[in-house]
Amino acid sequence: MFGKSITLFKLFGFEVKIDISWLVIALLITWTLAKGSFPHYYQGFQNSTYWIMGILGALGLFIAIIFHELSHSLVAQKFGIPMKGITLFIFGGVAEMTEEPPSPKAEFFMAIAGPISSIILGLGLFGVRLLGEGIGWSKPVLGVISYLALINLILAGFNLLPAFPLDGGRMLRSVLWGMKDNLRWATRIASSIGSAFGIALILFGVLSVFMGNLIGGVWWVLIGMFMRGASQMSYQQLLVRRSLEGEKVRRFMVSDPVSVSPSISVEDLVEDYIYKYHFKMFPVVEDGKLLGCVTLNQVKEIPREERHRQTIRGLAKSCTKENTVGPDEDAMKVLAIMNKAKSSRLMVVEGDKLLGVIALKDMLEFLSLKVDLED
Asked: CA–CA distance from 171 to each of 98, 164, 186 (Å)?
């Protein structure tokens, strides 16, 4: 879902990160508030005042989203759901779970915590505004507080829509899950509703464009595309997790992998192995012991005229956690390692012995067959 993110700080043990895309939306929000909303509702201020109000409004929205997602994370922690952290991205924020909730009850309370926190914050800010009005706070300050109070209530209302993976969609899934005790069925139904809701937003956005609201229409289209993609991806992730969870590496690994001797030249590696097998990484083995591995990127650094002189022994690097895995590791952990290392093959090792190689394509073939059979 995310691109490059930056860790800002830790809060109650959770990492708070910001996706680069959120910087774009923060600038757009600031500009919209400073040049559109605040001048329209609060006339007569200096241009610099509107920009300060816009910056404070965007900053307040940033804090409100963190507060919303932190509520999810704290409740999830109470139910024993592992949380990676909170990431703000172009369409808001998300509390990152590493596992599905253990029960419908845990899902429901975790989901509803976010909207409730936003409602409480919104009503609280309305109370602060009334208090500030009574003691004579300036109109720019009251304007920013009013905006933040309203935006929190809107945030709560939007998230309560029964469209997965919004909070309301998760609440719907928890109810369906409790009715049939079938998480997969509940996710499929909730995701279908979320996908349909995304399509409806796209159509509404297209209609808005034809009616002359170009910027608003484009945003509705983008939000609809995100909603549809996120709902479909959530169901696919559940299928992958449910199909591979508990499966061990031994089940998928090739126990007689192609390996290279440290004594051959780089040129022989290219001609006899890379061009023949089309792999980007080869284990280097001598007398049954794993010495390391050699990758396509390492080979590319060697000039063509030098490849016949240099042996693999001088090129091979020690194996790391990014390209090795144990035979009894869970398949889901393997997928996480592959994703992080951007690699489709890992070596299966035990001590200094190479037991085999596990490839992404073999896991995906198993996944496809299992999903087809269970459907």
From this structure: 19, 9, 11
